[in-house]
Design brief:
This protein is of the alpha/beta class. It has eleven helices and eight strands. The relative contact order is 0.17. It binds 2-phosphoglycolic acid.
Amino acid sequence: MNFKRPPVIAGNWKMNGTSEMVIQFSKNILKRVLDDNAKRCEFIICPPAPLIPLLYESASQSAFLVGGQDCHSSESGAYTGDISALMLKDIGCSFVIVGHSERRISYNEINSTVKLKVGAAKKAGLISIVCVGETQDQKNNGETFEIVRSQVLESIPESASDSDIIIAYEPIWAIGTGKTPEIEEIANVHAAIRDVVAKSKGVEVAEKIRLLYGGSVKPDNVAGILSIDDVDGALVGGASLSSNDFWSLCENAAKLFAILNRKV
Ligand code: PGA
């Protein structure tokens, strides 16, 4: 964690939640006052699209920001069931997750599709959280660095910079499984991603771009993961669904930020 880069904790509800859940979150989390250390951090919730307006209504009076889980690469048109980046922006989103492995797998989204979506998000004024990560087989075959490198290079437009994108490293085998890589593995992959960004976009962008880790992040392992220098935050699935878990995860992260902040 490096305080030149504002830390980010993003919750991805995936296809879960109802308006009742938003009301619970609003009561349990959004109205709580964050201490000064937590204020340095960006806390984001990405609910399913129909819940965005309701969540935004409560979140707009809190420290929490709202994001979408995907967007189409076009602004509008005959794309039944899709949502454009512009529409997300219009209903209060500041962020959008793109290229999540669940979309890459279930909807055959390839790097070039993700790249178009990142471009559309930038045009709409949204920050993209671009997801990359290897499968279990690719990890077993020693292909992690190669896969992540090509995903970063091919999913991010040439014009995108540190103010337009956040990169989330999410090993697919760690998502929803309770398994996480060793701290050293996370550190190595994040350092490699920063290196790829330095070579493709320059050292200044690489120093400023925020890199998140995602995959089975919980209240009790978040501090260890965020202690890694090149990790600037977390993308959280399962543990973002319970307001108690998500709050303790955010609090544990904020406590760590306070300790780290005293060190820098
Ligand atoms: P998980 O999901 O925290 O439930 O592993 C992470 C993600 O898919 O972003």
